[in-house]
């Protein structure tokens, strides 16, 4: 069968990547989708069982740090487009091991850019779509929102590495006319997220009656978006976004950590048939994260005005869906929290 487009998705076995792959492979039978993933602790092929045997899907195990390997697969598969999600993604790990974030997020991205540039002698109808974060903009006080024009001001090694990768993506557009799009999204939540990030970590701890470690005073604010809403925005921008542009994606859904945690305790207690709010006693204030950004908030006017995109799922419903998924998928949680996770947890908390 001749496919209309050959799309390389990197990091497709991770949290956001696996949602994107499931949508693209099932929705677009005319595209052949290739998933390049190193399968680090955060990548899990169990996330992709529903698509693994479909004829328009191919998994390629590999590392974006290996440029010879990238050149080889570009030669073999001749991709038309890349959606680049592979990254080291957790702020706390970036504080312990910043170099790994420079390697994967900066050098890995430049390797991909360089390979695409070399391979695409004709850049018509090609696209390098880079998935990034709102954390590149730094931290807000009580008011204001990040727009696409907000100056980059990253604070954590994670956000500094993502900011640097964004700059390289833009530099390849400005210098070599490589057709690029960048989107910067706020905090995602939903099924399949590795339980090091706040929401799945706390669901797992509530379930196991373990302490809920709240950094600092719990008043830091994050803007939460259900992962499927993010995927819809990526689908839209992949097909309709303007080359060379940046788009902000967010949930219009700001929560102080402590308020979100109390809501999460309520939802999990209800689902487990526990006494109302009994899990709140697990809340434990611990030493603040170094360089902890106070507040993130995203202005979504650009993507909303240009394409009518806005988040669909109400937060409480999204949280319920997420809790239901984690409670039903105990085996998944067990698998990902065995091995390396135990070491990480001991060192971290
Ligand atoms: P994740 O940590 O769940 O998944 C990352 C994936 O990349 C894993 O499957 C891992 O195996 C793979 N990977 C890591 N290093 C690799 C390498 N060297 N070569 C090939 N594959 C490698 O991350 P996520 O939360 O799904 O985030 C995906 C992307 O979205 C990242 O670029 C992240 O910066 C961005 N993002 C995430 C959020 C969020 O809230 N999670 C928000 C905005 C943007
Ligand atoms: P996280 O899920 O790590 O996302 P990010 O740092 O990229 O925003 O954290 C979300 C918020 O929750 C952030 O303000 C840090 C806080 N947090 C805790 O209070 N305790 C924890 O154990 C974790 C992982 C996060």
What does this structure look like?
By secondary structure, the protein is an alpha/beta fold. It has a domain of 239 residues: Rossmann fold (3-Layer(aba) Sandwich), CATH 3.40.50.720. The protein is built from twelve helices and twelve strands. The strands form three sheets. It has a seven-stranded parallel β-sheet, with helices on both faces. Strands 7-9-11 form a three-stranded mixed β-sheet. α5 links the parallel β5 and β6. 42% of the residues are buried. The model has no long low-confidence stretch (mean pLDDT 97). It binds nicotinamide-adenine-dinucleotide and thymidine-5'-diphosphate (TYD). The site of nicotinamide-adenine-dinucleotide has 31 residues, from α1, α4, β5 and β7.
Summarize the structure.
With 349 residues, the protein is α/β, with parallel strands linked by helices.
> Can you tell me the CATH superfamily of the domain at 5-190 and 224-252 and 291-314?
NAD(P)-binding Rossmann-like Domain
Secondary-structure element order, N to C? EHEEHEHHEHEEHEEHEEHEHHHH
Which structural class should the secondary elements be placed in?
A: alpha/beta
Read across the widest sheet, the strand sequence of neighbours is: 3-2-1-4-5-6-10
Overall pLDDT level: 97
List keywords for this structure.
349 residues, alpha/beta, Rossmann fold, seven-stranded parallel sheet, three-stranded mixed sheet, binds nicotinamide-adenine-dinucleotide, binds thymidine-5'-diphosphate
């Amino acid at each position: 069968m001749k496919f209309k487009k050959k799309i390389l998705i990197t990091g497709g076995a991770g949290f956001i990547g696996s949602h994107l792959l499931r949508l693209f492979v099932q929705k677009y039978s005319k595209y052949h989708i290739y998933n390049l993933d190193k399968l680090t602790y955060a990548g899990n092929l169990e996330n992709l069982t529903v698509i693994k045997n479909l004829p328009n899907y191919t998994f390629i195990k590999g590392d974006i740090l290996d440029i010879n390997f990238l050149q080889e697969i570009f030669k073999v598969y001749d991709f038309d487009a890349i959606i680049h999600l592979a990254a080291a993604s957790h702020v706390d790990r970036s504080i312990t091991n910043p170099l790994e974030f420079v390697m994967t997020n900066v050098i890995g991205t430049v390797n991909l850019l360089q390979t695409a540039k070399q391979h695409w002698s004709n850049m018509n109808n090609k696209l390098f779509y880079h998935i990034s974060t709102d954390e590149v903009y730094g931290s807000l006080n009580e008011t204001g929102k990040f727009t696409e024009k907000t100056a980059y001001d990253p604070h954590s090694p994670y956000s500094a590495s993502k900011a640097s990768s964004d700059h390289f993506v833009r530099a390849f557009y400005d210098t070599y006319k490589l057709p690029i799009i960048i989107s910067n999204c706020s905090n995602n939540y939903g099924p399949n997220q590795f339980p090091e990030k706040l929401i799945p970590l706390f669901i797992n701890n509530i379930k196991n009656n373990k302490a809920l470690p709240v950094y600092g005073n719990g008043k830091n604010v994050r803007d939460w978006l259900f992962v499927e809403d993010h995927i819809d925005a990526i689908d839209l921008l992949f097909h309709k976004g303007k080359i060379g542009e940046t788009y902000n994606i967010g949930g219009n859904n700001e929560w102080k950590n402590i308020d979100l945690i109390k809501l999460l305790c309520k939802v999990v207690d209800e689902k487990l048939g526990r006494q109302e709010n009994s899990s709140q006693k697990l809340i434990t204030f611990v030493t603040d994260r170094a360089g902890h950004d106070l507040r993130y908030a995203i202005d979504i006017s650009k993507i909303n005005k240009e394409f009518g995109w806005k988040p669909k799922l109400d937060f409480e419903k999204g949280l319920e869906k997420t809790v239901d998924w984690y409670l039903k998928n105990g085996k998944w949680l067990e698998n990902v929290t065995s091995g390396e996770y135990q070491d990480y947890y001991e060192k971290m908390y």
